[in-house]
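Project standup — Tuesday

K.O.: blocked on the structure for the chain from last sprint. Re-posting the sequence here as requested.
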Amino acid sequence: MTELILTGMVQGVFCRHYCSQTAKRMGLRGSATNLMDGSVQVILVTDDEGKIAEYVKALKENSFGVRFFGKITGIDVNRNYQGAVDGDYIF
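H.V.: unblocked you, prediction finished:
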């Protein structure tokens, strides 16, 4: 599994929905959770480097035109995530 931490204006702007819809269109499963520090954690159920890179690019560019009113200014990728796929927005 892979963990992404999204920073920027990412809470209260449909970011979790945006992440979910983008992932679904790419055939990915996972979860998105608002964190206390104002960031959003996304867990992807994949270790496929190509899919991860494609997903990060799609989030940065809004490749699918999903409604999103925020701005992602940073995406940190942790390819060694060992936690569970749980959170407040499962997809």
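K.O.: great, moving the ticket to review. The chain is about 25% helix and 30% strand. The two ends are 14 Å apart (CA to CA).
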